[in-house]
UniProtKB/TrEMBL annotation:
Family: Belongs to the acyl coenzyme A hydrolase family.
Gene source species: Plantactinospora mayteni
Annotated protein name in UniProt: HotDog ACOT-type domain-containing protein
The entry's keywords: Hydrolase
Span of domain HotDog ACOT-type: 70-184
Annotated Gene3D superfamilies: Hotdog Thioesterase (3.10.129.10)
Entry coiled-coil feature ranges: none
């Protein structure tokens, strides 16, 4: 009689890369949790697994192969002009927010290999004002991936028009959540991100903390309102 294998605790995992798909009954590694993998058809990438749940057998595809963090890195640059300013003569925050969303969307689409849409802006900080004539660079990368969602981190720096020889200064930072979607607009699986450096691994872990805080905040607000609505605004 065969027995289901149990999933080792997170602290026992040897890699952040495993953690991404630990709940998906990964047939490549045979990690099945409370679900027993009864067989594997084919022999390589793209094969389908069979799993037995409550006496019923279901076929499912393994998750797509992961990509390193560096694969998702994207940089956009532009010079700020007079049409970008607010009433105070500095670049409008909304202009920078769109710039942030553009570069984050490009990074999410590159990593996921298809369309990805903005689900949330987790945090955005405006550290320094941006002025007309500044050359602004927005750098983005995928920090974390779930089954269908990704966190993208963005760092915006500016080269001052009147001090071009100085180092660029950080003017904004942001974290955004994107969801991969198919042609019908439905969520689709996204491949895992594979951290390459200690900094990448730190960003991965911090993204998990931010996700836990988002979920906890939503749960607390729902409990306070006595409703199961997913929206927290209004």
């Amino acid at each position: 009689m065969s027995h289901p294998r149990t999933v080792p605790p997170r602290t026992a995992l040897s890699s952040l890369h495993w953690r991404v798909w630990i709940d998906l009954a990964d047939c490549h590694r045979g990690v099945t949790g409370v679900i027993r993998v009864t067989g594997v058809t084919g022999g390589g990438g793209g094969t389908a697994c069979r799993r037995t749940v409550a006496g019923m057998t279901e076929q499912f595809s393994p998750p797509p192969a992961g990509k390193p963090t560096s694969y998702s890195r994207v940089t956009l640059s532009r010079i700020m002009t007079a049409v970008d300013v607010n009433l105070y003569g500095t670049v409008h925050g909304g202009v920078l927010m769109k710039f942030v969303d553009d570069v984050a969307g490009a990074s999410a689409a590159r990593h996921s290999g298809g369309t990805a849409v903005t689900a949330a802006i987790d945090e955005i900080v405006f550290a320094e004002p941006v002025r007309v004539g500044d050359l602004v660079h927005a750098h983005a990368q995928v920090n974390w991936t779930g089954q269908t969602s990704m966190e993208v981190g963005v760092r915006v720096v500016a080269e001052r028009w009147d001090s071009a020889e100085d180092d660029p200064i950080v003017v904004a930072t942001a974290y955004l959540v994107f969801v991969g979607v198919d042609v019908a607009g439905n969520p689709r699986p996204v491949r895992p991100v594979l951290p390459e450096t200690p900094v990448d691994e730190r960003r991965f872990r911090e993204a998990e903390i931010r996700r836990a805080h988002r979920l906890a905040k939503r749960k607390a607000i729902q409990a306070h309102r006595g409703t199961a609505d997913t929206a927290v605004a209004g």
